[in-house]
Amino acid sequence: MTSSIRRHYERVTAAKAAADAGDQPMHGEAFELMQAQLFEDYRRLKSIQSVERKIEVKREILPNYAEYVAGVLESGQGAQDEVLMRVMLWRIDVGDIDGALAIARYAIAHDLDPGEQFQRSTAAILVEESADQALALAEDDDSLIDALREIDTLTDGMDMHDQIRAKLHKALGNGHRARGELSEAIAEYQRARELNDRVGVKRDIETLERELKKQEQAEPEPDTKSGDSQQSNTSDGPETSS
């Protein structure tokens, strides 16, 4: 178990390395140690065939990078950092979207590159992988909707394939649906379909439109009779002299 003194040291040295690097590629002892750790962990993961087991291992090893990440985010000025970007992806993989967002805010603000092995931008990776995680949840689970909203805002206007953005809107639709926010869910599904007509939301839209119509028909009409009666009684009452 890592002591509090050790964790503090790791955070401070990472912050110093990030500050010293400026906007140049990350370097320094703290980075090199994490880079070496990353290489070993990556090699371990590559030897595992089971996706489920890979996720278990990622959950196990991610805490080893926590202080380094905290230090970089605290003092970093936009240095390219393969360790930071890999941790962001691993956090998404294990379902820690909030933890990934902490890195994504910094990465997008400084236009960090996810690495040569990826064919997508940081924004596209964040949107698609987070949406995939959300879509894998049960339809009545709205636990990620707030994070997805922030991702949508954070990446607004950034170029990516329409199919990727469509996934995000479908996931947002599911989240609103789970909260009983039918109008909002329909709007998100419709936007998803505009971006990709094969995203698979046609039946969802039809179902929710029927449910919304039933709700509207079931709503009681406002009772105006009592108000009219009171108004009538007031106007017809005896006049009093001043």
From TrEMBL:
Residues 200-242 are annotated as: Disordered. It holds the Pfam family Phage_term_smal. PROSITE patterns: TPR. Residues 200-226 have a biased composition (Basic and acidic residues). Keywords: TPR repeat. One of its GO terms (molecular function) is DNA binding. InterPro entries: Phage_P2_GpM, TPR-like_helical_dom_sf, TPR_rpt. TPR repeats lie at residues 166-199. Residues 227-242 have a biased composition (Polar residues). This is Terminase. It comes from Salinicola socius.
